[in-house]
Amino acid sequence: xxxxxxxxxxxxxxxxxxxxxxxxxxxxxxxxxxxxxxxxxxxxxxxxxxxxxxxxxxxxxxxxxxxxxxxxxxxxxxxxxxxxxxxxxxxxxxxxxxxxxxxxxxxxxxxxxxxxxxxxxxxxxxxxxxxxxxxxxxxxxxxxxxxxxxxxxxxxxxxxxxxxxxxxxxxxxxxxxxxxxxxxxxxxxxxxxxxxxxxxxxxxxxxxxxxxxxxxxxxxxxxxxxxxxxxxxxxxxxxxxxxxxxxxxxxxxxxxxxxxxxxxxxxxxxxxxxxxxxxxxxxxxxxxxxxxxxxxxxxx
Length: 300
Ligand SMILES: C[S@@+](CC[C@H](N)C(=O)[O-])C[C@H]1O[C@@H](n2cnc3c(N)ncnc32)[C@H](O)[C@@H]1O
Fold this sequence. Notes:
Blueprint: H1 19-32, H2 38-50, H3 54-59, H4 69-80, H5 85-88, E1 91-94, E2 97-100, H6 109-125, E3 131-136, H7 142-150, E4 155-161, H8 164-173, E5 180-184, E6 197-203, H9 211-224, E7 225-236, H10 242-251, H11 268-278, E8 281-289, E9 292-298
Parallel strand pairs: 3-4, 3-6, 4-5, 6-7
Antiparallel strand pairs: 1-2, 7-9, 8-9
Helix pairs in contact: 1-2, 2-4, 4-8, 6-7, 9-11
The chain binds S-adenosylmethionine.
S-adenosylmethionine binds next to helix 7.
């Protein structure tokens, strides 16, 4: 194997580690991983993970990484898997705010807007004084941070994920916001007792579960919705043919070799059928582009 294709593991990044020491460690790891632009990539990734600019990095080289250490490690691991820097640190401005784009998410603007519209449509039809929303596989809480202010009533939210880095990122985002509870839970296992919800949302998360668990989870979601409650699942679904799958990968600058091995893609039709069989009403696909689809259903 040529050196440039060697797979290396990201170094440890502790909160007490100084910024410049982390930068040098990251340069070494990326270079060892065969990434030619290791110097510049390390600087760009470090600054993005810490939310600082280059001038700040130069001015304060001894400043500890602090809570941003987890994000540095997360970014390093992704770059070592050859994910483009632009996607790792990608930002888009929409819905009047700036949000980070998650792994394997292209530009979720239209998809996410469709999901928010589905929640708002439902809110207009079923007005409530207070809302309880559950976000499954919340990541850094990007989706909840969009949905909450879009509703005109007070919202209590529960955000579930199992990744320590993502839980930390969500904790940072919602620090000081007592209306959001962050729960560490592996969705491979039955949902814990979280109470009832008016809306359950999920974005690009459930496709990481095996198919049998997807179906059981959909049933659990149905049970924890209040009557009239809505389930909006923005999901990475399977293509109808291998050629379409490869075209999709190509369109996101990915290949069969580099696609996320943890994906367990299932076609849209099967999932819509399952939702109907479970008892969801008005089940439909509200938005779709290739392998990205928004499924919506209501509890009667
Ligand atoms: C592609 S990210 C999407 C994050 C966020 N929903 C968004 O749209 O920006 C997928 C998320 O699902 C979480 N996830 C994957 N498998 C999970 C599991 N078994 N249990 C809990 N969370 C999981 C990952 O940690 C990650 O945060």
